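Section 5: illustrative case.
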């Protein structure tokens, strides 16, 4: 299976540069995963496709303002880093630009020395491991100095940082937002609960894989980077009960999907657990954790297009993307949504 099989032509004017004023007024393309049949709705209509007893699974990760611009201590050269992973004891894995300027021992100053990062290890593909040096609470410093790590295809300035967070974001740790969840409002979630639909939360901290294109031709040669996930006992019990009652589990986003499928592959049931996953889902994958999927429109040739193709059929997905363009849907992180049922 080739990466080029998952390519499509995109009119770049359809790449959403800013979020809509109201989160749940984005468009929703509903697709039957077995037939490819499409229906055009608004996102707030998603409730019409959820039944009492179903469980909606949300990823409650919270994005760190992880993009920092500083200067090298010796030369004042401008260096940008993106914090990807907390390695504990003030050590962090970071995507660094330009990485070739950073050697072991190099120190970068941020905010006139409010935060310093000392390189202690060289990784592959622009990755550096830094030890952070600071006084006080790191998250407060990042709130002061850091910027939201918006994807490179977004060129507009984000006026409100909270618009790159879900309304239920709770556990700090992501280098990118779980964007399918950006469409939900607190009011919509309340209506969903009032209808008798369960809401459950998992955590997956979105990491390096989000920023890396697939560089190999055969998709089986692609290596996913690992990401931290956790599931509480409350969520595990609710999901197992949902299954037992013959109701559906609807994943909000590919991150929730990857968490649920990882746990099912490991235990063949849902369990309270934490761990790291590098699961790569592409056509041929047997889904055991989810029955429906809410997701955004993804980049050509990305692992996310491969995942949604695995859940339905590649031909149906690519046709849906073609129709979405004809109907002027907005694409990618701040764009519109799909419901695959």
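Designed sequence:
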């Amino acid at each position: 299976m080739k990466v080029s099989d998952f390519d499509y032509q995109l009119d770049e004017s359809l790449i959403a540069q800013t979020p809509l004023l109201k989160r749940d007024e984005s468009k929703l393309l509903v697709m039957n995963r077995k037939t490819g049949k499409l229906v055009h709705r608004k996102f707030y209509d998603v409730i019409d496709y959820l039944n009492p007893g179903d469980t909606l699974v949300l990823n409650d990760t919270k994005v760190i303002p992880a993009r920092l611009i500083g200067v090298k201590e010796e030369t004042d050269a401008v260096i940008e880093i993106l914090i990807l992973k907390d390695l504990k004891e003030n050590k962090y894995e970071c995507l660094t630009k330009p990485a070739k300027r950073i050697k072991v021992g190099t120190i970068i100053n941020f905010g006139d020395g409010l935060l310093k990062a000392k390189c202690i290890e060289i990784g592959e593909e622009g990755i550096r491991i830094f030890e952070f040096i600071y006084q006080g609470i790191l998250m407060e410093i990042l709130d002061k100095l850091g910027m939201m790590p918006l994807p490179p295809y977004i060129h507009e300035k984000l006026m409100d940082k909270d618009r790159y967070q879900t309304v239920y974001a709770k556990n700090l740790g992501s280098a990118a937002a779980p964007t399918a969840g950006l469409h939900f409002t607190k009011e919509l979630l309340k209506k969903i609960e009032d209808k008798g639909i369960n809401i459950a939360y998992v955590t997956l901290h979105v990491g390096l894989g989000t920023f890396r294109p697939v560089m190999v031709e055969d998709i089986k040669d692609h290596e996913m980077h690992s990401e931290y996930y956790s599931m509480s006992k409350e969520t595990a019990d609710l999901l197992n009960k949902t299954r037992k009652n013959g109701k559906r589990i609807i994943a909000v986003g590919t991150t929730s999907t990857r968490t649920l499928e990882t746990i099912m592959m490991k235990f063949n049931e849902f369990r309270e657990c934490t761990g790291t996953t590098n699961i790569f889902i592409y056509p041929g994958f047997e889904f055991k954790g989810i029955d429906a999927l809410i997701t955004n429109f993804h980049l050509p040739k990305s692992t996310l297009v491969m995942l949604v193709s695995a859940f339905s059929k590649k031909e149906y997905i690519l046709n849906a993307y073609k129709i979405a363009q004809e109907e002027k849907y907005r694409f990618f992180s701040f764009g519109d949504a799909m419901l695959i049922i």
